[in-house]
Design goal:
Blueprint: H1 10-63, E1 67-71, E2 74-79, E3 83-89, E4 95-98, E5 103-106, E6 111-118, E7 121-128, E8 134-140, H2 142-146
Antiparallel strand pairs: 1-2, 2-3, 3-4, 4-5, 6-7, 7-8
């Protein structure tokens, strides 16, 4: 009668250890990728929220404007209730809004901005940096559109 050997062979143990090593390596890389995606998603959400605030404020300024003009890359808005409001983009892509009382800044938007005037319409041209995609946001002045003036 032959004795029964109980236990695992050495090569079976090495295969199991190799499979566990590969699994842990893949799981670790997957975990790091998930963390990066989560962080970039939060960054994009923050940029979107900032951009929405910028457009909301610009829309309010243009809506009540009785005169729109661009000079040297600046958008100059004349409003009967707030006086002159200027919008411009700095060299580091920060959008700045200034009136007689305060100055507001929007940084970290991740795009290039250009202001244009087309009659009673202000156009904010947005060029997304990494994707090189251009969009235009058209903002209409109610006072210029209806022909009202602040005389």
């Amino acid at each position: 009668m032959k004795p029964h050997r109980r236990g695992f062979l050495l090569y079976a143990m090495l295969i199991v250890l190799a499979l566990l090593g590969v699994f842990s390596l893949v799981a670790g890389r997957l975990f790091i990728s998930i963390l990066r995606v989560t962080r970039s998603g939060q960054d994009i959400q923050t940029q979107t929220t900032r951009f929405d605030g910028l457009v909301r404020e610009l829309r309010a300024d243009v809506w009540g404007a009785n005169q729109l003009q661009t000079t040297g890359g600046k958008l100059v808005i004349t409003r009967p209730d707030q006086g002159i409001v200027t919008w411009h983009v700095t060299a580091d892509q920060m959008v700045v809004r200034a009136d007689s009382a305060q100055e507001r800044r929007w940084a970290g938007l991740g795009a290039d901005f250009v202001f244009e005037i087309r009659g009673a319409v202000a156009v904010l041209k947005v060029q997304d940096g990494p994707m090189k995609r251009s969009d235009e946001i058209v903002l209409i002045s109610q006072m210029q559109r209806t022909g009202r003036d602040s005389q």
